[in-house]
Q: What sequence folds into this?
């Protein structure tokens, strides 16, 4: 890395009810080989001891900037961080996750090498108390454009974390607080379309912690239907793009409808209007269900069932989950 003049990076971390995991996350960020960054920690009205932890870290390192606000959700906290950011580049890290020491440096080098304004790396899931892996060699980055991006690549995914983005791309891009699921996928697509390309680093530099109390692991509520709303918005943004970006977006849209409908229809608390909305969206995109590649066989079957026989599909979903001993 050229150390003569390196830009400031703003790292935004929303914080809520993660006192058990927060110190490890912050330690991994402060151990970065890329030194010129500010760490913006946004306490989103956390009721535990997160604020006390943030104060301790702020007293020890001048790069740590802490903020406290009323609880408004992760989108609200990330938007707040964007308003405070001073860096030329911006990235997001979730407060229960970890990053490798080379995370910022290698992402910055990747986008410089490819001449892009966004860089993205792989991530790897870990469990509690699992040892973080190490990497010793940085692979050559690959340039991905809106003309060759596919959601069906095993490394693809609409995450706002594991990315580094030039602030100009995010000038008028914000998270939608009305979306409780899928908001980061919509954010990613919006910035990707603005940038037109990204540098992909085929190396896992981000550790995503799988824990039972995380938002994606919780029992689905009626809020979960917003994932279908998010993907329909994504489709409206992408439908004029070339394949495979266009076609795989529509496939992901109907796959999202299937997951949302089958999880919500088996819950005690139901909303018939929301269920009708999801089924209407699935029907609009049901032709895309046939195009889902063989490597996603179970998702393809679910997408076809929600599109053509949703009530039978809901019974089959419940039976399969019961056989496997899984909750909805």
A:
């Amino acid at each position: 890395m050229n150390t003569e003049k390196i830009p400031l990076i703003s790292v935004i971390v929303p914080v809520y009810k993660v006192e058990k995991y927060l110190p490890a996350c912050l330690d991994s960020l402060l151990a970065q080989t890329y030194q010129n960054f500010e760490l913006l920690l946004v306490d989103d009205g956390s009721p535990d001891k997160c604020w006390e932890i943030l104060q301790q870290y702020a007293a020890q390192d001048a790069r740590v900037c802490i903020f406290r606000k009323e609880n408004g959700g992760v989108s609200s906290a990330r938007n707040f961080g964007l308003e405070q950011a001073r860096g030329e580049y911006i990235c997001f890290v979730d407060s229960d996750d970890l990053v490798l020491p080379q995370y910022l440096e290698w992402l910055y080098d990747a986008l410089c090498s490819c001449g892009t304004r966004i860089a993205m790396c792989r991530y790897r899931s870990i469990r509690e108390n699992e040892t973080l892996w190490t990497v010793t060699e940085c692979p050559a980055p690959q340039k991905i454009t809106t003309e060759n991006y596919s959601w069906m690549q095993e490394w693809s995914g609409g995450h706002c974390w594991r990315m580094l983005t030039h602030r100009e791309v995010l000038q008028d891009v914000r998270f939608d607080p009305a979306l409780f699921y899928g908001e980061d996928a919509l954010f990613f697509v919006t910035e990707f379309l603005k940038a037109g390309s990204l540098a992909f680093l085929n190396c896992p530099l981000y550790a995503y912690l799988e824990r039972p109390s995380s938002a994606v692991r919780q029992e689905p509520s009626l809020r979960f239907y917003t994932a279908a709303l998010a993907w329909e918005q994504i489709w409206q943004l992408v439908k004029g793009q070339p394949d495979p970006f266009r076609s795989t977006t529509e496939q992901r849209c109907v796959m999202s409808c299937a997951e949302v409908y089958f999880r919500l229809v088996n819950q005690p608390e139901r909303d018939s209007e929301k269920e009708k909305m999801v089924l209407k969206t699935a029907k609009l995109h049901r032709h895309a269900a046939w195009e889902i590649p063989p490597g996603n066989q179970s998702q393809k079957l679910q997408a076809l069932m929600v599109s053509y026989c949703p009530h039978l599909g809901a019974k089959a979903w419940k039976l399969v989950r019961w056989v496997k001993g899984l909750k909805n």
